[in-house]
Amino acid sequence: MFDHKVTDVFFDLDHTLWDFEKNSALTFAKILVENKVNVDLDDFLEVYAPINMQMWALYRQNGIGKSELRYQRLKRTFDQLGEHVSDEIIDILAHEYIAHLSSFNHLLPNTLEALDYLFPKYRLHIITNGFQEVQTKKLKGSGIHHYFQKVIDSEMAGVKKPDPYIFQMALDMAQVKPQNSLMVGDNLEADILGAKSMGMQVLHYNFHRETQHGECTMIDDLIEIKNIL
């Protein structure tokens, strides 16, 4: 189904392999209780999830920095819930969230099965917009670090997906031509269009259950990779 032979497969991490939603929920369940923030967890997560996505979109566009992202996603959630939480507590929560997030290590369904299938046949790598100190812990804690030869993050590159530079850095580090590489990710803008603009082949893992588009093949389960590669 691909125009050229694939030798290297690049994965996004959060929402593609690592179950961000479940691990994030477990982290909040811990830190909200420990800091005596009396909100209903389900209500909090329902409001937080879209705000977090909005903040990450701004971060990708260089509209906000790392510290502002971490503060604003919490501040805006509490404001929308009508809960008064002091800046001091928000700063503590922001710090503890990062500190504890990688201690929960649920993977998305069939991650290990897909990686076990690919590992003997292809060179595997990660390209992530996540923060370096957290992403490495996620990979090691969830037991998948050994699958990947190169791990490229946005702090290392100095730019974020979909900026072409981070994909070029990844290709250079892996020593592979774009036409022989495949990017697998959940975000249409950052992963699919970003990689495609560099001449990479692409596969959209439809974690967010978006409507079909014509940019590339979409899969709903990672195990479907076995039928494609």
TrEMBL record:
Gene Ontology MF term list: 5'-nucleotidase activity
Organism lineage string: Bacteria, Pseudomonadati, Bacteroidota, Flavobacteriia, Flavobacteriales
InterPro entries: HAD-like_sf, HAD-SF_hydro_IA, HAD-SF_hydro_IA_YjjG/PynA, HAD_sf, PGP-like_dom2, Pyrimidine_5'-ntase_YjjG
Protein name: Noncanonical pyrimidine nucleotidase, YjjG family
One Pfam family per UniProt: Hydrolase
Native organism: Flagellimonas oceani
